[in-house]
Design brief:
heterodimer; A: 425 residues; alpha+beta; Cytochrome Bc1 Complex, Chain A, domain 1; 2 domains; 6-stranded mixed β-sheet; 15 helices; B: 467 residues; 16 helices
C-alpha cells in the first residue's frame, strides 16, 4: 500500500470517451481537464507544428461560442485556463469555482463536437501569426533557442515522428490550411481519443449525468491512423553523433542527449532516478562535482523526456564559464555519466526522495491531480497510477541505476550538441 | 438533462463563499514576529522567514548585495558544510530556498509536518550561523557575474533592466536589477556581505509566516529550540528616497541587430502598495492588461497577431513601483504595436468602461480568490506579500467586497491619475536599422539610443507549447 490514496472513479461513455472523477472538497474549486491522444508525433511531412497551431484554433470559438467568448466566460467566472501541446498528446484545462463546473463542460463539449462551423480563414491567419510570434519569442530570439530542434534531429532519425519538435517550422506553419484544420479535427478530436478528468469539489452523481448530457451525443469517430514514419527504434543511437553551433551565445554550453526506454516501459523509473542522481538539486553529482568541486560549470540541467514512441530521451547540459573549452566541458560531463557505475545507495535514496517530494507537493492543486490522472488514463488506462507512482520510484535499486548507466549512457548512445560563443567575451 | 440548451452558457448557482480563518500574529521572546495560519488538509507545513529590507536596504552602488547575501547563506555554517546542508534538505524531502526582492529577504521551507523539527534546524542554521567562506564567495560571485552576462543576451531581460534604469536612474535601488551589475558585483566584499547579514538577518527584522498542519502549542517549542541563541534588533531599513519626477516622454532604443522580435516596455513610476486606489487599480489593470481578455492582449494578439501575448502590471512595492506594459512583437510591426499600446492606454483614460467589461474584471479578481489559496505554499506567498508590504493580515477577508465596490467612475478617475501616458517612458530592444525610423515617425517623443549591455538567458528544458 502506498502513501498516496487519492480517490478516483472511472466511467466510459458509449461513444468511447473515458471519464475520471476524483473528488476532494478541500478548496471550493473544480478542475476540468481533457487529454486528446494527439501531438506533434501525429503530424504528416510538411505540416510540422500543426498540432500546436490546431490547439490555438480550439480557442477561436465553436458553433455556440463566438471568438474570445471562451476566455471571457472562464475569466468572468474567476477561472484559469490554458492548453499545451506535446509530442504524444494535447491537453486543455480550466480550474473554476466549484459552482461553475457546468460552464467548463459546456465549453469543452462544444469545441469537441462543434468546432468546425466556427472556423474561418481570418482566425487561422491570426493564430498563425500568434504562433509564429511564439516561436520567435521562445526560440528564435533566445540564445541557445534552437537546442531542442537540433537535439531531436540527432537523437531520432528523419523517419521517426520525434525527429521534429512541437513548435515546427515557419514554412510548415505558413502552409497550413483550413482543410488541414478540418481533417485534423475529424481524425483526432473524437471522444474515443479523449480522456476527461474532473477533480476537486463536485457532486459525483450529478457530474456523471452532466458529462453524459454534454458529451454523450458527440459521434465516436474512426480508429486513429497509424503514426507517420517509422516508429521502431534501436535502443541506442549506435554512435556518438554531434552538432556544433558557433553563434550569439554568451557562454559555452555542452548538451548530451541519450535514448532511454519509452515512458511506458518499466525501466523508465530507473531512468528518472538516474537523472535525479545526476542532476536534480545541489546535492546531485553534476552540481556537487562540476559546479562546486571542479568549478568547470556554472550551471547544470538534467531532464528525462517521458515519451511513448520507440524511445524517450535523457538530457543533460552544463554551461561553462567565459573562455571554457567545450571539449573540457564535454569530458567533464561524459566522465560523470561513466562514473555513475559507482552510484551509492544513499545517492539513490536521495534521488528518490527529491523526485517523490516534487510529485506529492504538486498534488495539492486540483489542476495538477486532474492532469496526472488524465495522463495515466490516456497512456495506461489506469488513473490509479497516480497513487502507485511513488512505489515504482521506491522500487528502483542502486544496482539498476548502475546497470542502466552502463547500458544506456555510454558512447554508443550519445548526441552531443555544443554551443560556442562567436567571440570570446 | 434531455433539454440541454447548447446555445447559451449554462445557468449556475452562487459562488462558494471563501472563509478566512483568524490568523495568529504574535512575537517570540527574541522579537521574531510569527504569523500562523493553521490548516490541516494535508500533513504539510510551508513557511517563510522574511527579513525586512531587501535590495532597497543597501545603496544602489551595491546593487546585487541582498540577493548575493541570500545566495551565500547556505554555502556553509559553523556546524554544516554546504553539501551537508543540501543533502539534509533532500533527504528530508524538503525544499529550502533563499532569495531577496526589493523590499525583503525570503528564506522558504516546505516540508512534511513530521519532519518540521529537522527542517527548522537547518533553516535556523543557515539564517543564524552562515560563515561565508572565501572560496565559496569567489565561486558564487563568478556565477553571478556570468548570470549578468547571460542576461545581456536575453532580450526580455535587457528590456527589463533598461526600463528600470530609465525610470529610476542610477541612484535609486529600484533602478538596478536584483542581480546587480558587473561593476557592483565585482566591488562587493565579504565584509559587505557579513555586514548586510548582520543588519538584516536579525530577530528584530524577521517575521516567520507559517502555514499548514500545525497548532501554535506545537509550533512554539519547535521555534524556541531551533532559534535558540538568536538575538538582536538588526538595523531598520531607511525609508526610500522619493522616486524621480516624471520625465518627458521618450522612446529608448537598445540595439539588437538581426532580432526577430522587439521587446517593448512602456510605463512610469506609479504607486506604492499602500495606495488608497489599490482595488480600483487592480480592476483597471485587469481591463487594460492583467488578463487574457484584457484590451492590450485582445488588440495586439487576438486582433492584430503582432505578439504571443501583451499585458501590463502595477508592480506595487513599499515605495512607488513601476507601472509596466509590454510585449515581444514581430520586428516589422514594432512601431504600430507601440502606437496600439499608447492608444489603448489613452482610450482607457478618455472613455468610460462599459458595464459588462467592468463586471467581467471584478468577477475575474473576486471569484478566483479560492484558487490563490489552494496549496500551503500559495497561502504562504499571499501572507508573505502582506507582511513585506506592511498590509494588515485581514486584508483578504474584505477583498471580495472591496473589489465589488469599484465602479466605472472610480476606474475612469484612477486612469486619469495613474496612467500619465504623455509622460511614460517607452523602451524598445530590437533591430535599430528596422525599427528606429518608424518609431521616430510615430511622433511620440524623441528617440534616445541606449548602449546595449555587454554580450544571454536560457530556455527551459522541457518545452511544451502553451496557448
Amino acid at each position: 500500500m502506498g502513501i498516496l490514496d487519492i480517490p478516483f472513479r472511472k466511467h466510459r461513455l458509449d461513444n468511447g470517451m473515458r471519464v475520471v472523477l476524483s473528488h476532494d472538497a478541500t478548496a471550493p474549486v473544480v478542475a476540468v481537464n481533457l487529454w486528446y491522444g494527439v501531438g506533434s508525433r501525429n503530424e504528416t511531412p510538411g505540416r510540422t507544428g500543426f498540432a500546436h497551431l490546431f490547439e490555438h484554433m480550439m480557442f477561436q470559438g465553436s458553433l455556440h461560442v463566438p471568438k474570445n467568448r471562451h476566455f471571457e466566460l472562464v475569466e468572468r467566472a474567476g477561472g484559469a485556463l490554458n492548453a499545451t501541446t506535446w509530442y504524444d498528446r494535447t491537453n486543455y484545462f480550466e480550474t473554476v469555482p466549484s459552482h461553475q463546473l457546468e460552464l467548463a463542460l459546456w465549453l469543452e463539449s462544444d469545441r469537441m463536437g462543434w468546432m468546425l462551423p466556427a472556423m474561418d480563414q481570418e482566425k487561422l491567419d491570426n493564430q498563425r501569426d500568434v504562433v509564429k510570434n511564439e516561436k520567435r519569442q521562445r526560440y528564435d530570439n533566445q540564445p541557445y533557442g534552437d537546442w531542442d530542434e537540433r537535439i531531436h534531429r540527432l537523437v531520432y532519425p528523419e523517419s521517426h515522428p520525434y525527429h521534429h519538435t512541437v513548435i515546427g517550422s515557419m514554412e510548415d506553419l505558413d502552409a497550413a490550411t483550413l482543410d488541414d484544420v478540418a481533417a485534423f479535427f475529424r481524425t483526432f478530436y473524437v471522444p474515443s481519443n479523449a480522456v476527461l478528468t474532473v477533480a476537486g469539489d463536485f457532486d459525483p452523481e450529478r457530474t456523471i449525468d452532466l458529462v453524459e448530457a454534454y458529451f454523450g451525443e458527440i459521434p465516436q469517430g474512426a480508429p486513429l491512423p497509424d503514426l507517420p514514419g517509422e516508429t521502431e527504434l534501436s535502443a541506442v543511437i549506435g554512435d556518438t553523433v554531434r552538432d556544433e553551433v558557433v553563434g550569439e551565445v554568451p557562454l559555452p554550453r555542452v548538451i548530451v542527449a541519450m535514448r532511454i526506454p519509452p515512458y511506458s516501459s518499466d525501466d523508465f523509473a530507473v531512468a528518472e532516478v538516474t537523472q535525479a542522481v545526476l542532476g536534480t538539486g545541489r546535492a546531485s553529482r553534476l552540481y556537487r562535482r562540476l559546479v562546486r568541486e571542479k568549478r568547470v560549470a556554472k550551471d547544470v540541467v538534467t531532464f528525462a523526456f517521458p515519451l511513448l514512441t520507440g524511445a524517450g530521451m535523457l538530457l543533460s547540459w552544463i554551461t561553462g564559464y567565459p573562455g571554457s573549452r567545450p571539449e573540457d566541458l564535454e569530458v567533464a560531463l561524459t566522465g560523470e555519466l561513466e562514473a555513475l557505475g559507482d552510484t551509492a545507495a544513499e545517492e539513490v535514496e536521495r534521488a528518490i526522495a527529491v523526485t517523490e517530494t516534487d510529485l506529492v507537493r504538486s498534488l495539492e492543486h486540483a489542476g495538477e491531480r486532474a492532469d496526472l490522472m488524465s495522463m495515466f488514463e490516456l497512456y495506461f488506462d489506469d488513473p490509479g497510477r497516480l497513487n502507485t507512482e511513488i512505489d515504482r520510484l521506491r522500487a528502483v535499486t542502486p544496482d539498476e541505476v548502475r546497470s542502466f548507466a552502463a547500458g544506456r549512457l555510454g558512447p554508443d548512445n550519445r548526441a552531443i550538441l555544443t554551443y560556442v560563443p562567436e567571440q570570446e567575451p | 438533462m434531455d433539454t440541454l440548451d447548447r446555445s447559451r452558457a449554462p445557468e449556475v448557482g452562487t459562488p462558494p463563499a471563501m472563509t478566512f480563518p483568524e490568523v495568529e500574529d504574535y512575537r517570540l521572546d527574541n522579537g521574531v514576529r510569527v504569523v500562523l495560519w493553521e490548516r490541516s488538509a494535508l500533513p504539510l507545513v510551508s513557511l517563510e522567514l522574511q527579513l525586512r529590507g531587501g535590495a532597497s536596504a543597501h545603496p544602489a552602488a551595491q546593487a546585487g548585495l541582498a540577493a548575493f547575501t541570500a545566495d551565500m547563506i547556505d554555502e556553509g555554517t559553523t556546524t554544516r558544510t554546504a553539501l551537508e546542508i543540501a543533502d539534509a534538505v533532500d533527504v528530508l524531502g524538503a525544499t529550502l530556498t533563499s532569495s531577496a526582492g526589493y523590499d525583503a529577504g525570503h528564506v522558504r521551507l516546505s516540508i512534511l509536518r513530521q519532519k518540521l523539527r529537522e527542517g527548522l534546524a537547518v533553516l535556523a542554521d543557515i539564517v543564524m550561523r552562515p560563515t561565508f567562506p572565501e572560496a565559496e564567495l569567489a565561486r558564487v560571485r563568478k556565477e553571478r557575474l556570468d548570470q549578468v552576462l547571460q542576461r545581456s543576451a536575453e532580450p526580455a531581460a535587457v528590456a527589463e533592466d533598461a526600463f528600470a534604469r530609465v525610470l529610476y536612474g542610477g541612484d535609486h535601488p529600484y533602478g538596478a536589477s536584483l542581480l546587480g551589475t558587473r561593476e557592483s558585483l565585482q566591488a562587493l566584499t565579504r565584509d559587505d556581505v557579513v555586514a548586510f547579514h548582520r543588519a538584516r538577518y536579525a530577530p528584530g527584522q524577521a517575521t516567520l509566516v507559517v502555514v499548514g498542519d500545525i497548532a501554535r502549542a506545537e509550533l512554539d517549542p519547535l521555534l524556541v529550540s531551533a532559534f535558540d541563541g538568536w538575538s538582536g534588533l538588526g538595523v531598520d531599513p531607511a525609508p526610500l528616497s522619493a522616486a524621480p519626477a516624471p520625465a518627458q516622454r521618450a522612446i529608448y532604443v537598445v540595439e539588437r541587430a538581426g532580432a526577430a522580435q522587439s521587446e517593448v516596455r512602456l510605463g512610469h513610476v506609479a504607486v506604492s502598495r499602500g495606495t488608497p486606489d489599490f482595488y480600483t487599480l487592480a480592476v483597471m489593470n485587469t481591463i487594460l492588461g492583467g488578463s487574457f481578455t484584457s484590451r492590450l492582449n485582445a488588440k495586439l494578439r487576438e486582433e492584430k497577431g503582432y505578439t504571443y501575448g501583451a499585458g501590463s502590471v502595477f508592480d506595487m512595492r513599499v515605495a512607488p513601483g513601476p507601472f509596466e506594459a509590454g510585449a515581444a512583437v514581430a520586428t516589422p510591426v514594432t512601431a504600430p504595436a507601440v502606437a496600439d499600446f499608447v492608444s489603448e492606454i489613452t482610450r482607457l483614460r478618455d472613455e468610460p468602461v462599459p458595464p459588462d467589461e467592468l463586471t467581467r474584471a471584478r468577477n475575474f479578481l473576486a471569484l478566483r480568490l479560492p484558487q490563490r489559496f489552494e496549496s500551503v505554499d500559495d497561502v504562504v506567498r499571499r501572507l508573505s506579500e502582506l507582511v513585506a508590504h506592511v498590509v494588515p493580515l485581514d486584508f483578504y477577508a474584505g477583498y471580495v467586497a472591496a473589489v465589488g465596490d469599484v465602479d466605472a467612475q472610480a476606474v475612469g478617475d484612477a486612469a486619469g491619475r495613474h496612467l500619465p501616458v504623455e509622460h511614460m517612458a517607452i523602451v524598445v530592444v530590437g533591430d535599430r536599422s528596422l525599427v528606429e525610423e518608424p518609431l521616430r515617425a510615430l511622433g511620440l517623443g524623441p528617440v534616445v539610443v541606449l548602449e546595449p549591455p555587454a554580450p544571454a538567458a536560457e530556455p527551459l528544458p522541457p518545452v511544451q507549447e502553451e496557448q
